DNA sequence: ATCTCAACCGATATATAGATCGGGAAGAGA
DNA sequence: TCTCTTCCCGATCTATATATCGGTTGAGAT
């Protein structure tokens, strides 16, 4: 858990939105063809007019901070919140 | 429901095996990455040393006879038995 | 003003599932 | 033997999700 990397990852509203959306997948990604238990696949985040390449970069940032778990299934990458890292980071932050 | 096409489709052991395997997906395709409720995807049938192109042709034969339902999700095609056609065909056969 | 860095985009690359094509082999029947 | 059909394979094509690259822009720091 690298605080610096995590804080940089959180330093963008879109990436914070991604984490928020992933709290309630059934609410925000109901139209996904795959069952949501698999996670939410990357293309679902192409919102707010962001280009695919930009979304990909944001998701990579979140993943490298370990704030999300990724699971590749063929051509798709499914994302879930990594509650473990998030909770640990919150604990660490409480000492700020 | 075209009897001729159905009978031709059934006239190969591999294709009959596919229908049999699809009766119990959880037994025969437990290792599939996708949930089995989506169906069984084509590559799962690459068994018995058959090449991908051969499997694809067999599945197309079953599909054109309407013995299986197909659902494409991105790069995958998921297969399920079409119980409706199968039952209707069995009824028709009982008049043979 | 300059430097840096994050963000953005379009274009291109990578990877993979499945479909299709061309050709060869085997069996049935005339 | 000739023909027709079915099967099989390797090779190639198509489609699509995601990653990466190159270049531009704008904000903040010095």
Automatic annotation (TrEMBL), chains A, B:
SUPFAM superfamilies: Winged helix' DNA-binding domain
Keywords annotated in UniProt: DNA-binding, Transcription, Transcription regulation
PROSITE patterns hit by this protein: HTH_ARSR_2
Coiled coil: none
Phylogenetic classification of the source organism: Bacteria, Pseudomonadati, Pseudomonadota, Alphaproteobacteria, Hyphomicrobiales
Matching PANTHER family: TRANSCRIPTIONAL REGULATOR, ARSR FAMILY, TRANSCRIPTIONAL REPRESSOR SDPR
InterPro entries: ArsR-like_HTH (IPR011991), HTH_ArsR_DNA-bd_dom (IPR001845), HTH_MetalResp_TranReg (IPR051081), WH-like_DNA-bd_sf (IPR036388), WH_DNA-bd_sf (IPR036390)
Gene3D superfamilies recorded: Winged helix-like DNA-binding domain superfamily/Winged helix DNA-binding domain (1.10.10.10)
Molecular function, one GO term: DNA binding
Protein name per UniProt: Transcriptional regulator
Residues in HTH arsR-type domain copies: 1-96
